[in-house]
C-alpha cells in the first residue's frame, strides 16, 4: 500500500453535488399528488438525495449500510468512561457482531447492511475474525494527554484504509452510509479534536459520554485540557493532529469521509466522533460537507459546536446518547421515505421468506368445538 497521502488533491477531487438534479427534484415535488410543501422536511431531504445521486431520476435507496469503525483509546486508562477501559470495546464489538446490540437489531429491521471495522481494538488479532480485523493498524493507541495516539505512518495508513473502505463500498453499490463508531473513551478524544479546531476550552466540550458522574467528568475534563495543549501546536497539519490527539478510528473515518465524497457516496453522520472527523475533513475539502447529513444531537456539547461549524442540521431528535451508529440508523427511514416519494420507479422490497399458510379451523370444526 502507498504510504503517503496528498491531502491537497481532495480540494479538486471532491465535486459539488449535482445542482441541476436538485432543481429537477424540486420541480418534481410540485408535480406530485400532495399539497405544496406537504411532505415537510422530507422534501428538502429528497432534493438533497437527488443532488448526491445526480442524473435526472431519483433512485429509491436500495443498499444502505451501517459502517462501525472500532478502536480503543489509551486515554480511557484514566477511567473517564462508564465502560471499562479493559475489555469494554471488545464486548461492544461482539454485541454488534452477534446481533444483540441495538444497532444490529435495527439494521435488520430496516434492511440495512452492517459492517464492523476493527482499526485498533485492544484485542488479539483473531478475536473477531479476518473480515473484521483485516485493516487493523495497531492494538489500542497512545494516551493523548501525554503522548501521541499514533505514529505519523500509522495515521497515514489508517487514513488510507478509510479511503479504501469508501472505494470498496462505492464499488459494491452501497447507496447510503450510516456512519458509526465504537470505542471506550472516544467522546474524550472527539472533544479534544473539536475543542482544538473550534478554539474552545476543555469545559466547553467535555460531555457525559457513556453516562459518567460529576467526579469522572472532572477527570475527563482535565484529560481533555492536557490533550488540548498537545493538539494546538499541530492544528495546521490534519494528519499530524490525527496522530497526536486522534486515533486510528478517527484517521480512518476522516479518510473515509473524504473519499466517500470523491465517489459521490452520501453519508449520514452519527455522534461526536463522526462530527470531529467531519470537521477535520472539512478543513481538507470545504465542499465535502455537502455530501453528508447530521443525524442527531447526542447531548455532547462538542457535537453541537461541530455541527454549527459544518452548518449541518440534525435530522431527528430522539435523545439517543449511545453512539454506535444508532442515531444515524434511525435517520434511515426518513431518507427512505424521501427517496421513495420522489423516485419514479416504485421501491420493490426483497420478497419475504415464504411462510407456511396459516391453518384456520373450518366452520364445521369451530362448531364441533362448541
Ligand atoms: C452499557 C453501554 C453501552 C454502550 N454502547 C456504546 N456506548 C458508548 O460509550 C462509548 C463512548 O463513551 P465514553 O467516551 O464515555 O467511553 C462508546 O463506545 C459509545 O458507543 C455505551 C455505553 C454504555 C454505558
Ligand atoms: O456523541 C456520541 O457519539 C456519543 C455520546 C454519548 C455516548 N457515546 C457516544
From TrEMBL:
| UniProt catalytic activity | 5,6-dimethylbenzimidazole + nicotinate beta-D-ribonucleotide = alpha-ribazole 5'-phosphate + nicotinate + H(+)
Task: Check the record and name the Pfam families matching this protein.
Answer: DBI_PRT (PF02277)
Enzyme Commission code(s) on record: 2.4.2.21
Give the UniProt keywords, A-Z. Cobalamin biosynthesis, Glycosyltransferase, Transferase
UniProt cross-references to InterPro entries, sorted A to Z:
Nict_dMeBzImd_PRibTrfase, Nict_dMeBzImd_PRibTrfase_N, Nict_dMeBzImd_PRibTrfase_sf
Q: Name one GO molecular function term.
A: nicotinate-nucleotide-dimethylbenzimidazole phosphoribosyltransferase activity
GO biological process terms, semicolon-separated: cobalamin biosynthetic process
This protein's pathway reads: Nucleoside biosynthesis; alpha-ribazole biosynthesis; alpha-ribazole from 5,6-dimethylbenzimidazole: step 1/2
Highest taxon above the source species:
Bacteria
Q: Tell me its family.
A: Belongs to the CobT family.
Which PANTHER family does the entry mention?
NICOTINATE-NUCLEOTIDE--DIMETHYLBENZIMIDAZOLE PHOSPHORIBOSYLTRANSFERASE
Its name, as the record gives it, is Nicotinate-nucleotide--dimethylbenzimidazole phosphoribosyltransferase
Q: What is the scientific name of the source organism?
A: Kitasatospora kifunensis (Streptomyces kifunensis)
